[in-house]
Design a protein that fits this description.
The complex is a heterodimer of chains A (114) and B (113). Chain A is mainly beta. Chain A is 0% helix and 52% strand. In chain A, strands 2, 4, 5, 9, 10 and 11 form a 6-stranded mixed beta sheet that branches. In chain A, strands 1-3-8-7-6 form a 5-stranded antiparallel beta sheet, with no helix packed on it. Chain B is mostly beta strands and 113 residues long. Chain B contains no helices and 11 strands. The chains are: A mainly beta (114), B mainly beta (113).
């Protein structure tokens, strides 16, 4: 089945730093999504992208839908302590008039530098 | 209460026990989902219900039995589980034509001894 490669697997941030993570797939998607999961909680939708090349912001978060439709990235500018958590990408492919299920990446764990 | 709620939040059970997980959504959605989240693995879709009808069973073993009595409630009945079934079980809901905008509950952390 379809798989998403999300990288990096984990990273440490210092307050104020910019953070970048990405997701790639061997097949195309119609929609790319980015979720964040805090400890003890379910994932929360951050940004949804619906068109190849689309660049969308949500506060300090910016995400792009790759032109090839096989990748997406998420940037966090000027990180703050509450940005720690696990970020998941997800792709969706619609076909034959039906909505496909979400395919998730393994996540990027953001932690604070000791 | 708003959003998607799940009970219990934590559950420890033996392999011979029978237990149930409950999910309730207060968002007026008609699609509900069960996912399994294991460490270092992507979220795995288990079941999908649309308007109380099961529309997807992602090759889930029969020891997991879902039930959707109405559009607001979703259950996952568990029996004779294995230790490898230990995971975080997440419920989500969405409007039927907005699969991409799923709202997740906090999950039930299940440990099978």
């Amino acid at each position: 089945g379809q798989q998403l490669n999300q990288s990096p697997q984990s990273m440490f941030i210092q307050e104020g730093e910019d953070v970048s993570m990405n997701c790639t797939s061997s097949s195309i998607f119609n929609t790319w999504l980015w979720y964040k999961q805090d400890p003890g909680e379910g994932p929360v939708l951050l940004i949804a992208l619906y068109k190849a090349g689309e660049l969308t912001s949500n506060g300090r978060l910016t995400a792009q839908f790759g032109i090839t439709r096989k990748d997406s990235f998420l940037n966090i500018s000027a990180s703050i302590p509450s940005d720690v958590g696990i970020y998941f990408c997800a792709g969706q492919l619609n076909y034959g008039g039906s909505q496909g299920n979400l395919i998730f990446g393994k996540g990027t764990k953001l932690s604070v530098k000791p | 209460e708003t959003g998607v709620t799940q009970t219990p939040r934590h559950l420890v059970m033996g392999m011979t026990n029978k237990k149930s997980l409950k999910c309730e959504q207060h968002l007026g959605h008609n699609a509900m989902y069960w996912y399994k989240q294991s460490a270092k693995k992507p979220l795995e879709l288990m079941f999908v219900y649309n308007f109380k009808e099961q529309t997807e069973n992602n090759s889930v073993p029969s020891r997991f039995s879902p039930e959707c009595p109405n559009s607001s409630h979703l259950f996952l009945h568990l029996h004779t589980l294995q230790p490898e079934d230990s995971a975080l079980y997440l419920c989500a809901s969405s409007r039927p034509l907005e699969v991409q905008e799923q709202f997740f509950g906090p999950g039930t952390r299940l440990t099978v001894l």
